[in-house]
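Complex record, two chains
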Amino acid sequence: MAISLEAKGLTKHYDDFTLKDISFEIPPGCVFGVFGPTGAGKTTLMKLLVHQIPASSGTVRIFGLGYDDREKEIKNRIGYVPQEPLFYQDRSVEFNARFAASFYERWDGGSFGRMLEEFKVGREKTFKRLSRGQKTLFAIALALSHEADLLVLDEPTAGLDIILRRTILERLRRFAAEEEKTVVVASHVTDGLEDIAEYINFLDNGKLVVQSDRDELLARWKRIHFKEGALPPALLGQLVDVRRQPFGSSGLTPDFPAIRGSLEAGIARGDVRIENARLDDILIAMHQGE
Amino acid sequence: MSAILRKSSFFFISHLCTFVIPPLAMLLGQRNRGVLSVMALWVPVWLSSSILWSERQESYGFLRTLPVTDRQIVRAKFGLALGFAVIYWLVLSLFIRGAWGSTPEYSGYVALASLTCAVSLVLAGGWYIFSWQFGPSALTAGVIAFMVLGILATWMVDVKRMVRIGGIGTLAPRWLAEGPWVHQAVLFAVALAAYYGLMRLAVRVKEESETS
């Protein structure tokens, strides 16, 4: 199987934080989501993937190439949208775009211009005068305009309104699905991203605690709604994130296939109802269960 | 790569104008040949301030997202400083020749220009490494401290009086001012070797740095 991105034993030490031994492989044509709370190490991981910072140990290979000897070739094929804008703040949008374009082997100026118009980012505006969302949109337009094969995005929907957020997510989904390209996206909120990410990774305190196919994860984790007394105490004890309400309670199970049989009777009586768990709830439950 | 060169050149050229236009006006307008020594002494100040402003306006985080390696960036920056220093020395030497002809003072002035250009080159390499190791804020403090020391030194050797009497050329050591041309060639060779060594060190520092 072809691999777009391979991380092996990736580690980064800081005085007060360590990203520990991260390994994964990402096939082409998919959206790879990295979620986790603030300070979990998502931005550090994204920076390591695009060689913004050197790793303490471990390797990253992109399209089978290493940064040691093929950095220029790799960077011609990746687009990076950082959490904090890294452009020339005192220069115009136009200057930043021209500056970046001069380095790429391929550059679609027409497509870039159309995206700026769609995102309503003025070309002559000084970069530091753009809003947070506009800065992100500019970075996304830049990343999409040099015909990259891999996009790495750190919190790409932060600061965007719901319409633009949906537009961006749809564009990312199409980019991966129709063009057989790869998207790696890190976010502390799953809102909208769980619909497009085929692979779910949960980073907590510098460690990758979940690496799963989204459908598998959602098949295992379910939210069970039940009437008072409908579940045997032993089963109730296995649920997490239990919410007691006057007209029925609910809780999450991390292993629905294992308890499915014991719920059949309750489901038949109408005392128990099963619902897909929300990714947010799963990740919070995992974080609290650490 | 040319985009990096163009962007950084702006600072070298604009600072050159700031430092050189006043003494050049004195030279051409008042026929004050002594100011050529000031133009020689300005080299380290000009290079240091150009590097300071260029580094303060740089975004290495942005550059690292682009298809360009740290090695290429370092070579471009070092190449630019070297290019400007060499052109400056050549032009200044021509001015000195035009002003002093084949007089004994001519050798002293050229020797002084050679010395300041050679030292400035090594200093420029050092500033780059300092900036990439400790960040632009530390560079600002370093360059300001250097400039204060420079002003103090200028006051101590009473440059103003020496310019007036045309004796600034004596600041250059005798072995350089009165020796054969090969002494200056050796001086430049040593400076270039040191500069090359600093550039190699700078590549390592840059590759390991996380400054943005």
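Note: The mean pLDDT of chain B is 87.
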